[in-house]
Amino acid sequence: MRLKLLAFFLLSLAIVACSGSKQVAVRQAPANSTQEEAKKPRYPVKMDSAELLRLQIAHSSYLRALALQNQGEYALAEQFMRHAYEADPENRYLAFSVLELMKMRGGSAEAAALAEKAKNLKGKRTSNQYALLGRVYSEQSNLDSALVYYKKALDSSDQNVHAAYEYSLLLEIVHNYDELIRVYGILLPQIGYPQSMLERQISLLANAKKDSALADLFGEAYEARGDRIFLENQIRLLFGMKRFEEAVGRVNEFRADSAFADDSLSIAFLTAAYIGLNQDSVMVDSLKEIYKRHPDRLHVLMNLALLETKLEKKDQALVHWKRLSTADKYAASAYGMLSAYAMEDKDSVKALEYLEKAYEHEPIAYRNALLVRYANAKAYQKAYKVLDKALLPNPKLDTLRAKVQESGDLEELRKFDAAATLDVASVHYEYGSFLQMNAEELERSPTTPEKLDEAKLYRKKADDHYLEAAKIGGESQNLLFAYASNLLMLQQIDSAIVVFKKIFEKYPQDAMAKNHLGYYLVDLNRNAEELKWGSSLIDEALKLSPSNVAYMDSKGWALYRLGKYPEALMMMEQVETAEDSLKEMFYQDTSIYSHLAAICQALSLNKRALDYYQRVLNIDPKNENAKKQIEVLKQAIQKSKEEESVEKLAEDAKTVPANEPAKVPAAEKDSGKTP
Fold first, then answer.
1. How far is residue 585's CA from residue 591's CA, in Å, rounded to a whole number?
2. What's the pTM?
3. End-to-end CA distance of the chain
4. Angle between helices 2-19 and 49-70 (to 10 degrees)
5. pLDDT tens digits, residue range 573-627?
6. 505: left (phi over 0), alpha (psi -120 to 50) or beta
7. What count of other Cβ atoms lies within 10 Å of the Cβ of residue 533?
8. DSSP string of 408-431, one letter each residue
9. Measured distance CA(300)–CA(338) in Å, rounded
10. pLDDT at 54 over 50
């Protein structure tokens, strides 16, 4: 613009010198133009001496301002630029030149006033001018106008990178993240993807769930910076979007670098891509070829074994898992898979052996799986050893914590410590659960006084572990229930009730807790008030779970305790209909048959009661109460039969004719007695 102004000034001087007066200069037409075109005036200039002087002043002041600006004399430069603008007040370029110097000086108020006029002047609009207006308006806190002009600066044909950056800062303030994503998309390629801006754009796209754009960004960043992590992230995103064909191409590019060819990550990527394309067999063949080339790269064998497991190629997978079990890095996973195969073959002994070996290599990863297996096998002593080890200081965890602490990430350190604390609380809870299960096993008939004493000792230890778990990790629903139910079995009934009330307050939908305490109070039958409360708790549990057979059994027993025998029998007959589907519940616990027997006995349904008590004895041959009641019932049934016989004889005697002697029972004939 400055060169054009100078050219215009020189042209004016030339015209005046040639004409000597106010004339219209006519440039000769080219030789090939028509005569008529030659007559048309080109670049008409009408300028008197005053106007010429004004332009000369403007131009001289402008040149002087430029010289001062180059020398760093910005205050003087502004004064001369003002003179130039005052001499030519309709010149948009001069107006913005003054505006720029005002901004450099910090004259915000003056700049704002000039900006209002300058923006409407005729002339070429440039991105620099729009950017200047954006700065002026932003300083005046007129954010709406600032955003408008920054956007124009960005969208101009001569995009202004500096303006784009300023625009991005303003967009952060107003939280216009969609536009900010667009601005970063324009800005990043022009400035080489600096890390902070790149991370911000990644965050924006991830929060907006624009996975496709994010994948493109990672690809562009990789091309610009050559950092492998960007290509890795792009491949992962392509997998997430199920763009597997593209992923294969990028994986091959990833593997093209000899430093990373056939490494563990590239193999994992390649496997995932072919699986996504449903080309499992192709991948198996590829892995076999790679493994032939690199028999020392066990990560290839690991992926091959996993794929063979997925494809149910059991024989091949077993060979490879056994080979991997000899390598420390993969031994835990290999033994875990061998354990799963042994369970599939119903070889529980071998399955447990393999799982124990997996635990030896990675205790934290396989601890819970091993404890579940020990619980199923009732291997309580082995479980205690695992739990004792889990409560000891762990050097590996200390090393990991030290690394997190060195990173300086306080949030990660907080998460690490919280997870470690919860794990210790979990171990105490599991310890208490195993002790409680062990106690129940000892208490289950047939039992002995020695077993009962041992069970009590286990329950006291369980009590200590539950309290420690609550102290470390807080009172979870499961922990409170386990603690309360254990207190009941320790005959600490009032303490247990306090804990159960806490459960009902914190977890009002816990039907199991309500049924458990309700049944215990009903069965204990200490007083009428507790009996009534226990029955109401069972009713609440049934409302929450109406078809629960265990709760229905509790209700039947509550009705029996309340003396409502017919209703109790009706409820228990509903329970009995579930016998075929809940055989374990019926055939391993005597309570349902005991309840049915007692209810039938109360209703004088002695034969049914006798049958139920006999079933109790089948489950628990040493059940003394069942034996006693069977004898009582047998006597009652015999007595009933005798009474029926006597009544029948009496009825028969009434029907004998007067002239015919009555029939005398044989026993009475033998004794010489007559009726």
1. 9
2. 0.61
3. 146
4. 150
5. 999 998 888 877 888 788 999 999 999 999 999 999 999 999 999 988 888 899 9
6. alpha
7. 16
8. T-HHHHHHHHHHHHHHHHHHHHHH
9. 18
10. yes
